[in-house]
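User: Hey, quick favor. My workstation is busy. Could you predict this chain's structure for me?
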Amino acid sequence: MISRFSVTGFKNFKDTITLDFTNTKGYNFNDQYIVNGIVNKGLIYGRNGVGKSNFGFALFDIVKHVTDKNIDSDNYHNYLNADSDSNIAEFSYELSFECGTIQYNYGKSDLETLVYEEIIINGNRFAFIDRRVSTIAEINAKGAENLEKDIGNSNLSIISYINKNTLLTENNDNSCFSKFIKFINGMLFFRSLDGNSYIGFEQGSSGILEDIAKRGNTKDLEKFLNTAGVDCQLSEIERDGSNSIGFKFKNKTVPFYSIASQGTKSLALFYFWLQRFRNSQEISFIFIDEYDAFYHHELSELVIENLLGSSAQALVTTHNTSIISNDLLRPDCYFMLTKIDFKSLSHRTRKDLREAHNIEKMFKAGAFNG
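Assistant: No problem, here it is.
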Protein backbone atom coordinates (compact mmCIF):
# COMPACT_ATOMS: atom_id res chain seq x y z
CA MET A 1 0.00 0.00 0.00
CA ILE A 2 0.99 3.62 -0.38
CA SER A 3 2.04 4.91 3.04
CA ARG A 4 3.04 8.45 2.06
CA PHE A 5 3.01 10.63 -1.05
CA SER A 6 4.44 14.10 -1.71
CA VAL A 7 4.43 16.38 -4.73
CA THR A 8 6.19 19.68 -5.41
CA GLY A 9 5.99 22.10 -8.34
CA PHE A 10 3.19 20.27 -10.16
CA LYS A 11 0.18 22.26 -11.40
CA ASN A 12 -1.17 24.29 -8.45
CA PHE A 13 1.24 22.76 -5.92
CA LYS A 14 4.11 25.25 -5.82
CA ASP A 15 5.29 24.05 -2.43
CA THR A 16 5.45 20.47 -1.19
CA ILE A 17 2.12 18.93 -0.23
CA THR A 18 2.13 15.56 1.55
CA LEU A 19 -0.55 13.00 2.32
CA ASP A 20 0.61 10.72 5.14
CA PHE A 21 -1.51 7.57 5.34
CA THR A 22 0.37 6.42 8.47
CA ASN A 23 -0.59 9.39 10.65
CA THR A 24 -3.52 7.61 12.27
CA LYS A 25 -5.13 7.75 15.71
CA GLY A 26 -5.90 4.86 18.04
CA TYR A 27 -9.64 4.73 17.53
CA ASN A 28 -11.29 1.45 18.47
CA PHE A 29 -14.03 1.54 15.82
CA ASN A 30 -14.00 0.91 12.06
CA ASP A 31 -10.45 -0.33 12.43
CA GLN A 32 -10.87 -2.54 9.35
CA TYR A 33 -10.06 0.56 7.29
CA ILE A 34 -6.62 0.85 8.85
CA VAL A 35 -4.32 -1.94 7.63
CA ASN A 36 -0.91 -2.37 9.26
CA GLY A 37 -1.11 1.20 10.51
CA ILE A 38 -1.95 2.60 7.05
CA VAL A 39 -5.25 4.18 5.98
CA ASN A 40 -6.81 1.79 3.49
CA LYS A 41 -9.94 3.82 2.66
CA GLY A 42 -10.25 7.60 2.74
CA LEU A 43 -12.38 10.55 1.61
CA ILE A 44 -10.91 13.89 0.57
CA TYR A 45 -12.62 17.23 1.16
CA GLY A 46 -11.52 20.72 0.19
CA ARG A 47 -12.73 23.97 -1.27
CA ASN A 48 -13.03 24.38 -5.02
CA GLY A 49 -9.67 25.18 -6.57
CA VAL A 50 -7.40 23.77 -3.83
CA GLY A 51 -6.28 20.92 -6.11
CA LYS A 52 -8.19 17.76 -5.16
CA SER A 53 -8.29 16.58 -8.79
CA ASN A 54 -4.73 17.73 -9.42
CA PHE A 55 -3.55 15.75 -6.41
CA GLY A 56 -5.07 12.67 -8.02
CA PHE A 57 -3.30 13.45 -11.31
CA ALA A 58 -0.04 13.89 -9.40
CA LEU A 59 -0.50 10.58 -7.60
CA PHE A 60 -1.12 8.82 -10.94
CA ASP A 61 1.67 10.52 -12.87
CA ILE A 62 3.76 7.41 -12.14
CA VAL A 63 1.48 5.34 -14.38
CA LYS A 64 2.88 7.09 -17.47
CA HIS A 65 6.47 5.91 -17.22
CA VAL A 66 6.32 2.76 -15.08
CA THR A 67 3.45 1.00 -16.91
CA ASP A 68 1.89 0.63 -20.34
CA LYS A 69 -1.56 1.41 -18.96
CA ASN A 70 -3.91 4.16 -20.06
CA ILE A 71 -3.03 7.76 -19.27
CA ASP A 72 -5.29 10.70 -20.16
CA SER A 73 -2.71 13.27 -21.25
CA ASP A 74 -5.35 16.02 -21.50
CA ASN A 75 -5.29 16.16 -17.70
CA TYR A 76 -1.56 16.95 -17.69
CA HIS A 77 -1.50 20.25 -19.57
CA ASN A 78 0.16 23.11 -17.67
CA TYR A 79 2.31 20.49 -15.99
CA LEU A 80 4.64 22.78 -14.01
CA ASN A 81 3.49 25.25 -11.40
CA ALA A 82 3.50 28.70 -13.01
CA ASP A 83 4.82 30.45 -9.86
CA SER A 84 7.65 28.01 -9.21
CA ASP A 85 11.24 28.90 -10.06
CA SER A 86 12.01 25.22 -10.62
CA ASN A 87 11.92 23.70 -14.09
CA ILE A 88 10.83 20.30 -12.79
CA ALA A 89 7.98 18.82 -10.79
CA GLU A 90 9.04 16.36 -8.09
CA PHE A 91 7.21 13.30 -6.78
CA SER A 92 7.95 11.06 -3.81
CA TYR A 93 6.19 7.76 -3.03
CA GLU A 94 6.61 5.53 0.00
CA LEU A 95 5.03 2.09 -0.18
CA SER A 96 4.80 -0.70 2.34
CA PHE A 97 4.65 -4.42 1.60
CA GLU A 98 5.19 -7.59 3.62
CA CYS A 99 8.71 -7.74 2.19
CA GLY A 100 9.54 -4.23 3.40
CA THR A 101 9.35 -0.61 2.29
CA ILE A 102 10.03 1.18 -0.98
CA GLN A 103 10.76 4.85 -1.55
CA TYR A 104 10.59 6.07 -5.12
CA ASN A 105 11.53 9.67 -5.94
CA TYR A 106 11.64 11.29 -9.36
CA GLY A 107 11.46 14.60 -11.17
CA LYS A 108 9.97 15.49 -14.56
CA SER A 109 9.97 18.57 -16.74
CA ASP A 110 6.70 17.45 -18.37
CA LEU A 111 4.58 14.34 -18.55
CA GLU A 112 6.96 12.65 -20.99
CA THR A 113 10.37 13.77 -19.77
CA LEU A 114 12.10 12.20 -16.77
CA VAL A 115 14.95 14.19 -15.22
CA TYR A 116 15.99 11.98 -12.33
CA GLU A 117 14.87 8.80 -10.57
CA GLU A 118 15.81 7.05 -7.36
CA ILE A 119 14.36 3.90 -5.87
CA ILE A 120 15.33 2.77 -2.38
CA ILE A 121 14.26 -0.66 -1.11
CA ASN A 122 14.56 -1.46 2.60
CA GLY A 123 17.09 1.34 2.98
CA ASN A 124 19.26 0.21 0.06
CA ARG A 125 19.57 2.24 -3.12
CA PHE A 126 18.25 -0.13 -5.77
CA ALA A 127 18.73 2.18 -8.75
CA PHE A 128 19.43 5.83 -9.50
CA ILE A 129 19.93 8.17 -12.44
CA ASP A 130 20.17 11.94 -12.76
CA ARG A 131 20.19 12.93 -16.42
CA ARG A 132 21.28 16.47 -15.51
CA VAL A 133 24.64 15.00 -14.55
CA SER A 134 25.12 11.79 -16.51
CA THR A 135 23.38 9.26 -18.74
CA ILE A 136 24.96 6.43 -16.76
CA ALA A 137 22.63 4.81 -14.25
CA GLU A 138 23.54 3.30 -10.92
CA ILE A 139 21.90 -0.12 -10.73
CA ASN A 140 22.44 -2.25 -7.63
CA ALA A 141 19.74 -4.85 -8.23
CA LYS A 142 20.98 -8.41 -7.80
CA GLY A 143 20.83 -10.11 -11.19
CA ALA A 144 21.21 -6.88 -13.14
CA GLU A 145 25.00 -6.75 -12.98
CA ASN A 146 25.39 -7.21 -16.76
CA LEU A 147 22.68 -4.71 -17.71
CA GLU A 148 24.01 -1.79 -19.77
CA LYS A 149 24.25 1.20 -17.43
CA ASP A 150 24.64 3.91 -20.06
CA ILE A 151 21.11 4.54 -21.31
CA GLY A 152 22.13 7.44 -23.54
CA ASN A 153 19.50 10.03 -24.40
CA SER A 154 16.67 7.58 -23.89
CA ASN A 155 13.81 8.86 -21.78
CA LEU A 156 13.05 5.34 -20.63
CA SER A 157 12.36 5.05 -16.91
CA ILE A 158 15.15 3.23 -15.07
CA ILE A 159 12.36 1.30 -13.31
CA SER A 160 10.88 0.04 -16.58
CA TYR A 161 14.36 -0.55 -17.98
CA ILE A 162 15.24 -2.95 -15.16
CA ASN A 163 11.82 -4.59 -15.11
CA LYS A 164 11.67 -5.30 -18.84
CA ASN A 165 15.29 -6.27 -19.51
CA THR A 166 16.40 -8.31 -16.51
CA LEU A 167 15.58 -11.60 -14.84
CA LEU A 168 16.39 -10.58 -11.28
CA THR A 169 17.82 -12.94 -8.67
CA GLU A 170 15.25 -14.19 -6.17
CA ASN A 171 15.75 -12.26 -2.95
CA ASN A 172 13.74 -10.05 -0.62
CA ASP A 173 14.55 -6.69 -2.23
CA ASN A 174 13.82 -8.00 -5.73
CA SER A 175 10.56 -9.44 -4.47
CA CYS A 176 9.65 -5.99 -3.15
CA PHE A 177 10.55 -4.49 -6.53
CA SER A 178 8.18 -6.94 -8.28
CA LYS A 179 5.39 -6.10 -5.84
CA PHE A 180 5.99 -2.41 -6.49
CA ILE A 181 5.65 -2.90 -10.25
CA LYS A 182 2.48 -4.97 -9.78
CA PHE A 183 0.99 -2.35 -7.46
CA ILE A 184 1.55 0.50 -9.93
CA ASN A 185 0.05 -1.60 -12.73
CA GLY A 186 -3.04 -2.12 -10.57
CA MET A 187 -3.72 1.57 -9.89
CA LEU A 188 -7.01 3.00 -11.22
CA PHE A 189 -8.26 6.61 -11.43
CA PHE A 190 -11.66 7.46 -12.86
CA ARG A 191 -14.15 10.29 -12.94
CA SER A 192 -17.42 11.14 -14.65
CA LEU A 193 -17.05 14.91 -14.78
CA ASP A 194 -15.88 16.35 -18.12
CA GLY A 195 -16.40 13.00 -19.80
CA ASN A 196 -15.73 9.47 -18.65
CA SER A 197 -11.94 9.47 -18.32
CA TYR A 198 -9.66 7.04 -16.55
CA ILE A 199 -5.98 6.47 -15.79
CA GLY A 200 -4.23 3.15 -15.21
CA PHE A 201 -5.18 -0.51 -14.88
CA GLU A 202 -6.31 -1.06 -18.49
CA GLN A 203 -5.45 0.01 -22.03
CA GLY A 204 -7.71 1.45 -24.68
CA SER A 205 -11.41 2.06 -24.31
CA SER A 206 -14.65 0.11 -24.41
CA GLY A 207 -18.31 1.00 -24.32
CA ILE A 208 -19.65 1.00 -20.77
CA LEU A 209 -22.95 -0.75 -21.52
CA GLU A 210 -21.40 -3.08 -24.10
CA ASP A 211 -18.80 -4.16 -21.54
CA ILE A 212 -21.43 -4.82 -18.87
CA ALA A 213 -23.54 -6.85 -21.31
CA LYS A 214 -20.53 -8.79 -22.54
CA ARG A 215 -19.68 -9.80 -18.96
CA GLY A 216 -23.24 -11.06 -18.45
CA ASN A 217 -23.98 -8.45 -15.79
CA THR A 218 -27.06 -6.75 -17.23
CA LYS A 219 -29.37 -8.08 -14.52
CA ASP A 220 -26.83 -7.33 -11.82
CA LEU A 221 -26.67 -3.73 -13.06
CA GLU A 222 -30.46 -3.65 -12.86
CA LYS A 223 -30.29 -4.86 -9.26
CA PHE A 224 -27.61 -2.27 -8.46
CA LEU A 225 -29.70 0.56 -9.94
CA ASN A 226 -32.82 -0.64 -8.11
CA THR A 227 -30.92 -0.66 -4.82
CA ALA A 228 -29.75 2.86 -5.62
CA GLY A 229 -33.36 3.98 -5.99
CA VAL A 230 -33.61 3.87 -9.79
CA ASP A 231 -36.79 1.86 -10.37
CA CYS A 232 -36.21 0.18 -13.71
CA GLN A 233 -36.01 -3.01 -15.72
CA LEU A 234 -33.12 -3.56 -18.09
CA SER A 235 -32.81 -5.66 -21.21
CA GLU A 236 -30.06 -6.26 -23.72
CA ILE A 237 -30.50 -4.72 -27.15
CA GLU A 238 -28.43 -4.67 -30.31
CA ARG A 239 -26.80 -1.37 -31.23
CA ASP A 240 -24.22 -0.85 -33.97
CA GLY A 241 -23.62 -4.58 -34.28
CA SER A 242 -23.00 -5.34 -30.60
CA ASN A 243 -25.04 -6.03 -27.48
CA SER A 244 -25.94 -2.99 -25.42
CA ILE A 245 -28.50 -2.26 -22.70
CA GLY A 246 -31.82 -0.46 -22.67
CA PHE A 247 -34.68 0.31 -20.31
CA LYS A 248 -37.47 -2.23 -20.72
CA PHE A 249 -41.02 -0.91 -20.74
CA LYS A 250 -44.36 -2.60 -21.46
CA ASN A 251 -44.35 -1.99 -25.18
CA LYS A 252 -40.70 -1.40 -26.09
CA THR A 253 -37.12 -1.15 -24.90
CA VAL A 254 -35.51 2.30 -25.00
CA PRO A 255 -31.70 2.73 -25.37
CA PHE A 256 -30.16 3.43 -21.95
CA TYR A 257 -28.40 6.71 -22.66
CA SER A 258 -31.31 8.25 -24.55
CA ILE A 259 -33.37 8.70 -21.37
CA ALA A 260 -31.02 8.08 -18.41
CA SER A 261 -30.41 11.03 -16.09
CA GLN A 262 -26.87 12.26 -15.52
CA GLY A 263 -26.90 10.60 -12.11
CA THR A 264 -27.97 7.25 -13.59
CA LYS A 265 -25.28 7.52 -16.26
CA SER A 266 -22.74 8.18 -13.51
CA LEU A 267 -24.00 5.10 -11.65
CA ALA A 268 -23.51 3.00 -14.79
CA LEU A 269 -19.92 4.25 -14.99
CA PHE A 270 -19.34 3.35 -11.34
CA TYR A 271 -20.79 -0.11 -11.96
CA PHE A 272 -18.53 -0.51 -15.01
CA TRP A 273 -15.52 -0.24 -12.68
CA LEU A 274 -17.25 -2.01 -9.78
CA GLN A 275 -17.27 -5.15 -11.94
CA ARG A 276 -13.50 -4.99 -11.90
CA PHE A 277 -12.69 -4.17 -8.29
CA ARG A 278 -15.41 -6.23 -6.64
CA ASN A 279 -13.66 -9.30 -5.17
CA SER A 280 -10.61 -8.57 -7.33
CA GLN A 281 -7.00 -8.72 -6.17
CA GLU A 282 -5.68 -7.11 -9.35
CA ILE A 283 -6.69 -3.53 -8.59
CA SER A 284 -4.36 -2.20 -5.92
CA PHE A 285 -5.36 1.46 -5.55
CA ILE A 286 -8.54 3.32 -6.55
CA PHE A 287 -8.93 7.09 -6.83
CA ILE A 288 -12.41 8.35 -7.72
CA ASP A 289 -12.68 12.06 -8.44
CA GLU A 290 -15.95 13.85 -7.56
CA TYR A 291 -17.72 10.51 -7.62
CA ASP A 292 -21.03 11.83 -6.28
CA ALA A 293 -21.40 15.09 -8.18
CA PHE A 294 -24.80 13.94 -9.47
CA TYR A 295 -25.96 11.87 -6.49
CA HIS A 296 -28.45 12.32 -3.68
CA HIS A 297 -26.71 11.94 -0.27
CA GLU A 298 -28.26 8.51 0.40
CA LEU A 299 -27.00 7.30 -2.95
CA SER A 300 -23.54 8.68 -2.18
CA GLU A 301 -23.38 6.55 0.94
CA LEU A 302 -24.49 3.45 -0.98
CA VAL A 303 -21.70 3.91 -3.50
CA ILE A 304 -19.12 4.40 -0.74
CA GLU A 305 -20.32 1.22 0.95
CA ASN A 306 -19.72 -0.68 -2.30
CA LEU A 307 -16.23 0.81 -2.50
CA LEU A 308 -15.48 -0.12 1.11
CA GLY A 309 -16.06 -3.75 0.20
CA SER A 310 -13.08 -3.68 -2.14
CA SER A 311 -9.70 -4.99 -0.98
CA ALA A 312 -7.93 -2.12 -2.78
CA GLN A 313 -6.61 0.97 -1.06
CA ALA A 314 -8.94 3.79 -2.07
CA LEU A 315 -9.34 7.57 -2.02
CA VAL A 316 -12.42 9.52 -3.08
CA THR A 317 -12.82 13.27 -3.54
CA THR A 318 -16.18 14.78 -2.66
CA HIS A 319 -18.03 17.87 -1.42
CA ASN A 320 -20.80 15.83 0.18
CA THR A 321 -20.65 16.42 3.95
CA SER A 322 -23.56 14.06 4.68
CA ILE A 323 -21.23 11.08 4.50
CA ILE A 324 -18.81 12.45 7.13
CA SER A 325 -19.86 9.97 9.76
CA ASN A 326 -18.24 7.65 12.29
CA ASP A 327 -20.80 5.09 11.20
CA LEU A 328 -19.11 4.92 7.80
CA LEU A 329 -15.41 5.52 8.45
CA ARG A 330 -13.47 7.27 11.26
CA PRO A 331 -11.93 10.75 11.68
CA ASP A 332 -8.44 9.73 10.55
CA CYS A 333 -9.91 8.46 7.25
CA TYR A 334 -11.46 11.83 6.34
CA PHE A 335 -8.90 14.23 4.88
CA MET A 336 -9.00 17.96 4.20
CA LEU A 337 -6.81 19.46 1.50
CA THR A 338 -6.07 23.18 1.82
CA LYS A 339 -3.65 25.45 -0.02
CA ILE A 340 -1.00 24.82 2.63
CA ASP A 341 -1.46 21.28 3.94
CA PHE A 342 -3.21 17.92 3.75
CA LYS A 343 -4.36 16.47 7.07
CA SER A 344 -7.08 14.20 8.42
CA LEU A 345 -9.91 15.59 10.54
CA SER A 346 -8.40 13.92 13.60
CA HIS A 347 -5.31 16.14 13.16
CA ARG A 348 -7.27 19.34 12.54
CA THR A 349 -8.64 19.67 16.04
CA ARG A 350 -7.33 19.45 19.59
CA LYS A 351 -10.60 17.87 20.63
CA ASP A 352 -10.50 14.18 21.52
CA LEU A 353 -12.89 12.81 18.92
CA ARG A 354 -15.02 9.86 19.93
CA GLU A 355 -17.34 7.49 18.11
CA ALA A 356 -20.46 9.24 19.44
CA HIS A 357 -19.42 12.63 18.06
CA ASN A 358 -21.36 14.06 15.14
CA ILE A 359 -18.34 14.97 13.04
CA GLU A 360 -20.47 16.19 10.12
CA LYS A 361 -22.00 18.81 12.41
CA MET A 362 -18.54 19.71 13.69
CA PHE A 363 -17.25 19.96 10.11
CA LYS A 364 -20.03 22.35 9.09
CA ALA A 365 -19.38 24.43 12.21
CA GLY A 366 -15.76 24.89 11.20
CA ALA A 367 -14.24 22.74 13.94
CA PHE A 368 -11.62 21.37 11.54
CA ASN A 369 -10.54 24.60 9.88
CA GLY A 370 -7.48 24.98 12.08
